[in-house]
Write a structure and sequence with these properties.
Helix content is 46%, strand content 18%. Strand 2 (13-14) and strand 3 (17-18) form a beta hairpin. It is of the alpha/beta class. It has six helices and seven strands; from the N terminus they run βββααββαβαβαα. It has a single domain (2-174), classed as Aminopeptidase, CATH 3.40.630.40. Strands 1-4-7-5-6 form a five-stranded mixed sheet. Strands 2-3 form a two-stranded antiparallel ribbon. Bound molecules: zinc ion. The site of zinc ion (ZN) has 5 residues, from loops.
Length: 175
């Protein structure tokens, strides 16, 4: 589990939110849910620290992780942009990465009640260079007032973590 950004790298900023903090909160909740479900979890960070993208990928590889999940929140110059999306990259393990993405994306949308922006491909570093099935989650837009209010809610983040964990479990059931 890779909570995006950290320390001097706040990530996206909007509506009083720092992306790095949301990412970490969701990641810690996800770690708890996955642990409860019997998974062995490894976090790229567990507090407000910064790792390079290369280090994040290396940590996943060194752990021999079965999957890699990077957690982010989105931003746009247009405050009207909103919703939730999941990215995968086709360089390694594409078939399994898209299956994992397709399990997780609808459960994030259900958990948050956000707009479904779908499953997309993009060569973001951590999912491009991770050799195991890997996805990057954009949970919502900190720059959109409604998404931001959702991301501020502890209950919503709890539901989100549970939804992601259910998607992960289903991925391992059906893959
Ligand atoms: Zn980010």
């Amino acid at each position: 589990i890779d909570p995006g950004h950290g320390a001097q790298d706040a990530g996206a900023i909007g509506n009083g939110l720092l992306e790095k903090n949301i990412n970490l909160e969701v990641a810690l909740k996800l770690q708890s849910r996955l642990h409860q479900a019997g998974a062995l979890t490894v976090m790229s960070r567990t507090s407000d620290t910064f790792d390079s993208l290369q280090t994040r990928v290396s940590k996943g590889a060194q752990a021999s992780a079965d999957i890699f999940i990077s957690i982010h929140a989105n931003a746009n110059d247009n405050s009207g942009a909103n919703g939730t999306e999941t990215y995968y990259d086709t360089t390694y393990a594409a078939a399994h990465s898209v299956k994992l993405a397709q399990q997780v994306q609808p459960r994030m949308v259900s958990a948050l009640g956000t707009k479904d922006r779908g499953v997309k491909t993009a060569g973001f570093y951590v999912i491009k260079y991770s050799r195991m099935p890997s996805i990057l989650l954009e949970t919502g837009f900190v720059t959109n007032p409604i998404d931001a209010s959702i991301l501020k809610s502890t209950a919503a983040k709890d539901r989100l973590a549970s939804g992601i964990a259910t998607g992960v479990s289903n991925y391992f059931d059906v893959k």
